Amino acid sequence: MRIAVVGLGLLGGSVARAVRDRMPDARVVGCARNEKTRQYAMENGVVDEATAELAAAVRGADLVVVATPVDAIAHAVIEIAAADPNTLITDVGSTKSNIVSAVVADATAASRFIAAHPIAGSEKTGVEHSRADLFVGRPVILTPSGFESTGAVERVADFWCSLGGNVSHMSADAHDQLLAISSHMPHLMASLIAGQLPPEGQAIVGTGWLDTTRIAAGDPQLWTAIVGENRTAIVNSLRSIGRELTSLIDAIETHDDSAVEEMLRSAQTIRLHAVNHESRP
């Protein structure tokens, strides 16, 4: 089996490492524009081959995993399908609606592309932070368009399962709405909180501030692209939390401590349930 990974950052590099670790008979080809990235990937056993040329990377591949920034995924998928209409294609993007809509406009690409989002990673970027176990036990959401060729969705689901992921399915719109709430809006809020810290406070921050703002260390360019691809859902989520923030300010100003405690207790319960759900096998 020949698997191509387009984009060798944290996620793309981790896909490549996971394939080499869990699918020893597969040959992994990495595609990256940056020469230092390709050199690192080869010298550290991330891939078997590395090239800057997309057509060369995907030629003859059984599966291509697109791990570029989200605003470049749809174009890459269409280009890959044109270069090799027989290969299956999936991705790792954290937004889905715009990508799926753009791809289904191209019949060849629509029949070969199964959109996926492995919910894994960290604030770190770059192939040097990639790990073979990144997807083990992590949710992987597939958002099929309905235009895929027979058996394509099942084959891509099997692939992500083979890397250790827990695969589920939902619509692209539902995915983007949920991710705006659970990932995209929290990242922006963490960035706002980090931005409130004055220089004189930097030497005395505690673990609470560090935990709350950890994701604010993510790549600004990458996250700007995510915001642009999921703009409506993120705005709706921010407006909702804005209303909650206004209510909290009112409760604090009017000494309504019972309302403050109720908010804290409700949030505590939701977080405990989410953590318990994540820890289940």
From TrEMBL:
Which Pfam families does the protein's record reference?
PDH_C (PF20463), PDH_N (PF02153)
Q: Which UniProt keywords apply?
A: Oxidoreductase
Q: Which InterPro entries match?
A: 6-PGluconate_DH-like_C_sf, NAD(P)-bd_dom_sf, PDH_C, PDH_N, Preph/Arog_dehydrog, Prephen_DH
Which domain of life does the UniProt lineage start with? Bacteria
> Mind listing the GO biological process terms from this record?
tyrosine biosynthetic process
- Which GO molecular function entries does the Swiss-Prot or TrEMBL record give? NAD+ binding; prephenate dehydrogenase (NAD+) activity; prephenate dehydrogenase (NADP+) activity
Provide the Prephenate/arogenate dehydrogenase domain boundaries: 1-281
Full protein name: Prephenate dehydrogenase
Q: Which organism is it from?
A: Neorhodopirellula pilleata
